[in-house]
Amino acid sequence: MDLEKKVSQLADLLLDSRKTMVLTGAGISTESGIPDFRGPDGLWSKVDPMYVFHAETFIYRPEVFYKTGLPLMGHLQTARPNAAHRVIAELEEAGLVWGVVTQNVDGLHQKAGSRNVFEMHGHLRSATCLKCRRVISWDRLVEMVSAGEIPPRHEGCGGVFKPDAVFFGDPLPPEFYDCCREVSKSDLLLVVGSSLEVAPVNYMPHLCKRLAIVNMGPTMEDDRAVLKVEARAGETFTALSRVLRERGVRLSGSAV
Ligand code: APR
Question: How far is the CA of 156 from the centre of ligand 1 (A)?
Fold first, then answer.
């Protein structure tokens, strides 16, 4: 089936749904220049994530993250939202999307204008001292590391600063349970750009009434989806915005 037909079906699903949640992963941000994790050029082909980004490694050898992990994250701060982020924000404004649950730490949904964003894997806006819980900005953290402070420590208590992102082995933020509740009250969960390989977020598709997926490549839940759009997120949401306008939906219009 061609993209136009699939997008038209996606528009039907959105217009039929009383409450829609969007669940995003790294694939929504590749068109903003941020590599995904498990794609062919994904980050995990460059480092061993279970070591470099593991909470336990961070506690015993924080320099591993600061020397190997952090240098892979520089472009996250300068990336700009793409058409998919922008259309999702417009859909929220138009009342067609209730909120976005994201596994991404890039902050691009907020930059695009989405308001109800739940960051399941944390963010890169700040870092917290593991000893006294003092919080510093991401810019300050990078400044300390650039000045050779590896690992960066709080000068008062000597504790190590850890980014406010969820590492493997870390608990998820408590909002995870709120999100699960909202997804189970939704008519539609729209997954965008995620392989759905990582727990516990990949549990959410089991809570919703209907599941639709926009992803290039297979996901763990393709069999459960009432619609799978196998295309780039940017072109899919650009087309969706056009189709919804043709059907009389008022979108703010900056997206395309
Ligand atoms: N449009 C649609 N899909 C895309 C695009 C695109 N432009 N670019 C890549 N994809 C697809 C990839 O083919 C892949 O199937 O997006 C999916 C991204 O999957 P992952 O790399 O596994 O990313 P994600 O699901 O977000 O990973 C979850 O794993 O390592 C952890 O904490 C990390 O949050 C991350 C979690």
Answer: 39
